[in-house]
Design goal:
about 325 residues, Quinone Oxidoreductase, Chain A, domain 1, seven-stranded mixed beta sheet, 11 helices, 16 strands
């Protein structure tokens, strides 16, 4: 098979306001042994994509790189020693970067079947949020039925996935965000209480929980939201550190952690799968089964053509997105 050229959303220089992002042609090699070539149908954008275009994320791909951490498409061709996939199979995949392209090549074990009931855009938007919520709430926090979960930034892709999973696990879910209008998506996803993030949030949470505070906080926002949510935890609570969309990386006073018997728990869902491959595969099987069962459904805020990919990143950066932004290819 010959190499081919395909259009892709490429970061060719690290810059603010996405000045280094453009649609360019990239070459794609034929699939080698153990590899598949995927004709991409959709790719979802995530906040880490925004950070990578500025060099501000933990993973720093070598320039130039194709943007996109998750996507969906169909198998176009398979390399030698690949028997589990056939041309035309509908698949989803997650990469550290590279999904916002018309065609890509990856390992055959890196793709999974598109969960039943999802279209390509929904499948593209599924993995990052669902996997983060699953690793955070199931693996790291051990959230139990009857506990109370507070989710910051609950109208975003990760926040909504945490709301959906928390409700499925039997927790009482308190969704927080910048406005009640945006939190309507969290209410539809299963949140029993929707509260605007404000200094008086702690009093509202105490009222809801009968003075006990919440058992678990899922925080992908950081900044002031982290500080406020920390004060909402009850005795023995668990605080999940997921990300810092607000920009400021907060700190925790060790004496406060001691006095309230708290646990502060870091969550790197993708990295955890790379450190424990067997558990990583189990996590993916679990979230795909939950998606097929209707537990996970990523609301799509916007479906954009590839040429408007930089505009999609700007929407994420501005915090104006409810759910996910998807590039349709």
């Amino acid at each position: 098979m010959m190499r081919l050229s395909t259009s892709a959303l490429v970061c060719h220089a690290l810059a603010d306001r996405f000045a280094g992002v453009a649609v360019r042609e990239v070459e794609v090699a034929p699939p080698g042994p153990g590899e598949v070539r995927v004709r991409m149908r959709a790719a979802a954008l995530n906040y880490p994509d925004v950070l990578m275009t500025r060099g501000g994320y933990q993973h720093k791909p070598e320039l130039p790189f194709v943007i996109g951490m998750e996507g969906a498409g169909t198998i176009e061709s398979v390399g030698a020693e690949v028997s589990q996939w056939a041309t035309g199979d509908a698949v989803v995949l997650q990469k550290r970067a590279g999904t916002a392209a018309g065609v890509l090549v990856c390992g055959a074990d890196a793709v999974r079947r598109l969960p039943a009931g999802l279209d390509f855009a929904e499948g593209a938007a599924h993995t990052v949020g669902a996997l983060t919520a699953y690793v955070a709430l199931v693996r790291r926090a051990g959230l139990k039925s009857g506990e109370t979960l507070l989710v910051t930034g609950a109208s975003g892709g990760m926040g909504l996935a945490a709301v959906q999973l928390g409700r499925h696990l039997g927790a009482t879910v308190i969704a927080t965000g910048r406005s009640l209008a945006k939190l309507e998506a969290a209410r539809r996803a299963g949140a029993e209480h929707c509260l605007v993030m404000a200094p008086e949030l702690r009093d509202e949470v105490r009222r809801i929980t009968g003075g006990n505070g919440v058992d678990v906080v899922f925080d992908a926002v950081g900044g002031d939201a982290f500080d406020t949510a920390l004060r909402c935890l009850g005795w023995g609570g668990r605080l999940l550190v997921v990300g810092f969309v607000a920009g400021r990386i907060p700190t925790v006073a060790a004496n406060y952690v001691l006095i309230k018997n708290l646990s502060v728990i870091g969550v790197r869902a993708g990295e955890s799968g790379r450190h424990d491959a067997a558990q990583g595969r189990e996590n993916l099987v679990a979230i795909d089964a939950l998606a097929a069962a209707g537990v996970f459904r990523a609301p799509i805020h916007a479906r954009l053509p590839l040429q408007e990919g930089a505009e999609g990143l700007a929407m994420l950066s501005a915090g104006s997105v409810t759910g996910k932004v998807v590039i349709e290819l």
